[in-house]
Amino acid sequence: MADNSERLGPQIAGELREWLPASGDRLFVETDDAAILDPLGFSVPGELRSPIGRWGLYADGFLHAGDRLVESGTIRPWEDALLYPLLTLYHQHLELLLKIVIRHAPKFDDKIREFLYKNHGLDKLWTKLDEVYPTAHKWASKECTEACSRLIKEFAQHDPESFGARYPVDKLDKQTLEQLRAIDINVLKLGVHKISHYLDTIMESDS
């Protein structure tokens, strides 16, 4: 392919080198201005990376990435495909945050840890939170807790197993996200942040 491209001229050959994989290409390269995987600075250079804060970093990262998509401007018709990664990012943020809260539950044990690794549905995680962390909602009004529950279940209704935004069909080849036709992404962002604040407050109120 390289020989053929050279015959087409140096400009086309250069474009092809930028367009197709070539010998020597890499994905993960460390440079002076590279993004750091331990931005909290808990790891000493040369030692194993500290686990402190890692769950929160992951959860925050997915939330901020989703927000960037929303704040980049209204998704235009030719960019509607961005809705799928947006839903995936927000779902992953809420899933991780629910799992963080459950991991702080007084009744957390190896059996619950195994449950967390096998389950991705937001409604299942919300139900498990009630089961293992009975004092989780003591700080909030009943109305607030019920409103949070409705938002979580609404998300789960459209994407029950974190599958709908990642694949056009489910494991039975049935089309996903069938009940959605259009989404106001600013309303979505606001609702996700409200759930996020609620879950964060559970840990803050118990600290």
Ends distance: 62 Å
Mean pLDDT: 88
In oligomeric terms, what are we looking at?
Answer: single chain
- Give the strand tally: 0
Structural domain count:
2
β-strand amount: under 5%
- Count helical runs: 8
Structural class: mainly alpha
Q: Rg to the nearest angstrom?
A: 22 Å
Main pleated sheet: none
The stretches of 5 or more residues where confidence is low (pLDDT under 50) are: none
Shape descriptor: globular
The topology string of helices and strands comes to: HHHHHHHH
Give a description of the structure.
The protein folds into 2 domains: 1-34, no CATH class; 42-206. The chain has 207 residues and is mostly helical. The mean pLDDT is 88. 55% of the residues lie in helices and 0% in strands. The radius of gyration is 22 Å and the shape is globular. The protein has helices spanning 2-7, 10-19, 54-71, 83-103, 110-118, 122-132, 142-158, 185-206. It contains 8 helices and no strands.
Quick recap of the structure?
Helices cover 55% and strands 0% of the residues. It is mostly helical. The chain folds into 2 domains: 1-34, no CATH class; 42-206.
Overview features:
207 residues; 2 domains; mainly alpha; 55% helix; globular; 8 helices
Describe the secondary structure blueprint for this structure.
Elements: H1 2-7, H2 10-19, H3 54-71, H4 83-103, H5 110-118, H6 122-132, H7 142-158, H8 185-206
